[in-house]
Amino acid sequence: MTEGWPTNLTEGAITLRPLRQRDAREWRSVRARNAEWLRPWEATSPEPAAEAPPTYSAMVRRLKAEAREGRTMPFVIAFGEVLVGQLTVGGISWGSLRSAHIGYWVDQRVAGRGIMPTAVAMATDHCFAVGLHRIEINIRPENLASRRVVEKLGFRPEGQRPRYLHIDGDWRDHLSFALTVDEVPGGLVARWKASQTRIV
């Protein structure tokens, strides 16, 4: 089982909680409404489409199995009581590396309201609290909205990874950003909230 999983994390109206089978209807509705908006950033398979993509139920079963093996933390992002996105901590490695990566998506209807930076900050703080040392986020250079998230949070740019992931039907370059626990001694949520107070 992943250290610190399952768990619920809350900051104001934003909650991160485990993805559940009973979220299926709401999850599918949000995904269908955002299909075109998310398509350019969605992972795809490099193999010819021999079979249909996995069902929601199969996806949840796979993520739960990976969580039991300590490799992932699959969160739903809720704003109030409404499901507005998904955040997955994946590639969890312990030993001398103690690292993981974060991937996420959010409903276009609530984009730009600080939900995603807050969710990423919450997940990062949780990862550091359970003993991870480094969090990485990889983003297509063209994904300006996602790049703004890591820039707002102060993730350090680490360069470009050519043809890094198969996204939207081809191998795509990604920019890599990272943060280590010693770079945010007071916590990332606290730093993010302080930056918002200074802006106001």
Question: Any descriptors?
Answer:
Aminopeptidase; eight-stranded mixed beta sheet; 32% helix; alpha+beta; single chain; 200 residues
What does this 3D model show about the protein?
The protein has six helices and eight strands. It has 200 residues and is of the alpha+beta class. It has a single domain, classed as Aminopeptidase (3-Layer(aba) Sandwich), CATH 3.40.630. An eight-stranded mixed sheet has the order 1-2-3-4-5-6-8-7, with helices on both faces. The protein starts with 8 loop residues before the first strand and ends with a helix. The mean pLDDT is 94.
Topology:
Layout: E1 9-11, E2 14-18, H1 24-33, H2 35-38, H3 56-68, E3 73-79, E4 82-93, E5 99-106, H4 115-129, E6 134-139, H5 144-153, E7 156-167, E8 170-180, H6 188-199
Parallel strand pairs: 5-6
Antiparallel strand pairs: 1-2, 2-3, 3-4, 4-5, 6-8, 7-8
